[in-house]
TrEMBL record:
Name of the featured protein: Ribulose-phosphate 3-epimerase
Stored Gene3D superfamilies: Aldolase class I (3.20.20.70)
Cofactor(s) it depends on: Fe(2+); a divalent metal cation; Mn(2+); Zn(2+)
InterPro entries attached to this UniProt entry: Aldolase_TIM, Ribul_P_3_epim, Ribul_P_3_epim-like, RibuloseP-bd_barrel
Family, as annotated: Belongs to the ribulose-phosphate 3-epimerase family.
Organism: Curtobacterium caseinilyticum
Keyword NADP: no
Record keywords, A-Z: Carbohydrate metabolism, Isomerase, Metal-binding
Phylogenetic lineage: Bacteria, Bacillati, Actinomycetota, Actinomycetes, Micrococcales
Class of enzymatic activity (EC top level): isomerase
Active site (record annotation): D33, D173
Amino acid sequence: MTIRISPSILSADFANLERELHRIESADMVHVDVMDNHFVPNLTLGLPIVQRLQEVSTVPLDVHLMITDADTQAPKYAETGASSVTFHFEAATDPVATAAAIRSNGARAAVAVKPGTPITQVLRHLDAYDMVLLMTVEPGFGGQSFMPSVMPKLADARAAVDASGLDVWLEVDGGIAVDTVPEAVRSGADTLVAGSAVYGGEPSQRIADLRAAAAAARA
């Protein structure tokens, strides 16, 4: 199982985002948090900035939409050329159709669930998604503590993906650091979002440390 590292620019210097993207060129993707101050109580960046990030980034964009009206907005972010677009299950009226629209616009389609949201309905339609993101904190702010209570749900998702034979990635986001990576990986995660754990030090070394922790957990 390949482990992917996706640093979150929510923890980066917003005044120097192009520089911050270049600092994580050893990562597999860059996690771009889009918040609208409605679905979550925070406001970050929107479509014009994501378009510009796509133009300057050498790392594929992993766009995470924490916004209302995901059905309408998610395909627009796919049109930017982003590698992956994630919308929240809780914000979509027809998650399967929204995922199909993302795919039709050239991006991998991903669905996210909050810590308290059952994953049963997502697992019933695994073939509609390329990735499932399980939030390990409540969405909206960086720097929160990892929630181990999500791990049984992650394990259920891993069992379902393995049984299906589908190439569906399982991403975790929230409180991911060297000390929490082992539990997440052992529970089935293959894609790790880390914000302050990367940008809180020298990013390339922090990314290497996360990879080492993941490899050790799989040994």
